[in-house]
Amino acid sequence: PEDLAVQRQPVHEVLQGRRPHYRMRKRYLRKDGAVVVGSLRSGPLRARDGRLTGLIGVTAPGPDARPDELAQRYRSLFEHNFDAVYSLDLQGRFTAANAGLERITGYTPGELLGYSFQLYIEEGQRDARQAMFDRAAAGETVNYDTVARHKSGELRYTNVTQLPIVVDGEVVGVYAIAKDMTQRVRHEEEL
Predict the structure, then answer these.
(1) Contact, 148 vs 104, CB < 8 A?
(2) To pair with 64 at 20 to 30 A between CA atoms, which of 33, 51, 52, 172?
């Protein structure tokens, strides 16, 4: 409870547009009742029209977490997420991907590894998407809508959030979460 005031301030600043994202160390209560310290990085989540709809955040356990717990948490993010979750190196090449990305692109994670994320981006959007990736690789959390081309040739509308992978204070890659918005966009077009 005494942490609440400190934790609310940056949330309000992001929601009011006074800062692009925030990072903080905070305490978490585990199921077994133990209090552990971890870190939280959060930024704005926006709708297609640019209006703010909420925040998206990534938590990381503190130094007292067990190594096997860290590996399980990481694996769980990929394996149990319906949305596409993937990581890219600083050149924009896939280093990991889940089945959600295969549903959007038609490419298996094995087919994507080592290739640029530009592989499935529509040609007319590649420069803009590279600019967003560059911002994430520079340490910023970004969110945008894009059109991807499925392996079959079908267009897929996606909402993508990219955030830096920071290790020992240095950005070493980019995580991304992509939500397939195709059905929603088609429904909106029909109306």
Answers:
(1) yes
(2) 172
Phi then psi for 73, rounded to 5 degrees?
A: -60, -45
φ, ψ of residue 134 in degrees (nearest 5): -60, -35
What are the DSSP calls for 28-54, one per residue? EE-TTS-EEEEEEEEEEEE-TTS-EEE
Distances (CA, A) of 110 to 70, 97, 98, 102, 114: 23, 8, 10, 10, 9
Digit-coded pLDDT (tens) for 94-138 = 999 999 999 999 999 889 999 999 888 888 899 999 999 999 999
How close are the terminal C-alpha atoms of the chain, in Å? 47
What tokens appear for 34 in the block?
């133990």
Q: How far is CA 53 from CA 112, 132, 144, 158, in A?
A: 31, 19, 13, 16
pLDDT band at residue 155 using 50, 70 and 90 as cut-offs: very high
For 40, residues 6+ apart whose C-beta sits below 8 A from its C-beta are 23, 24, 25, 26, 57, 58, 59, 60
Using CA atoms, how far apart are residues 104 and 53, in angstroms rounded to an integer? 23
CB 58 within 8 A of CB 21: no
C-alpha closest to that of 84 among 136, 165, 150: 150
Q: What is the Cβ-side half-sphere exposure of residue 104, based on CA atoms within 13 angstroms?
A: 30
- The 10 Å CB-count burial string (b at 16+, else e) for 23-53 is eeeeeeeeeeeeeeebebbbbbebeeeeeee
